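Lab channel / #folding
Pinned by the channel admin:
"Please post every new chain as: sequence first, then the structure tokens as a reply. Keep commentary short and put observations after the output so the thread stays searchable."

First post following the new format, from NK:
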Amino acid sequence: MRELTPRIALELIAHEGIVTEAYKDSVGVWTWSVGITDASGHKVFPRYKDKPQPLEHCIGVYLWLLREKYLPPVLAAFGPHDPSEAQLGAALSFHWNTGAIARASWIGRFVKGDIAGARASMMEWARPREVLERRRKEQALFFDSKWSGDGTTLVHGVAKPSYQPARGQRAQVRALVEGLFADNAQASPAPVSARQTWFDRLFD
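Reply from TO:
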């Protein structure tokens, strides 16, 4: 498996949640949607400050970044190994959260066949305490194919003037994610420069 799938995208969304306008994370970095910051290459501040966005836009930008910016280094880390859907999903979730797939020893151990060592060393990335449960779920997905997402996520607004995420409400996003994938699959086979994909339409 070397392609992004709706199931993978939904698993990661379940870990992250969605905040529909720009907020300050725990260290004051302006963040939006499924944990997106300016470091991703997509400008968050001031674009989304005080400007709540529809879920289609939040998820569409997330999918584009996941495919274009995060999938390539994860595939490179697997080298010649062809990951399962569960392994690719867990590795993408890890990289989205840490940005460290290229230097994480656990993936190297896995590729070399040291499964027990890889399982143990993944938990070296379980700090701060807030990410412990997420890392356990990624570990269970990667090594035991145990998915934890159910197609729902918490969707948050923003409390002001602190610009911290407000208490979220659980929302079903499976149909929206699957619809965006279907739109992309049905795009014209014309060259990219000549066709309008689902991502382009989000900015019309």
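NK: Confidence is low (pLDDT under 50) at residues 188-204.
TO: also worth noting, The domain at 6-201 is CATH 1.10.530.40 (Lysozyme).
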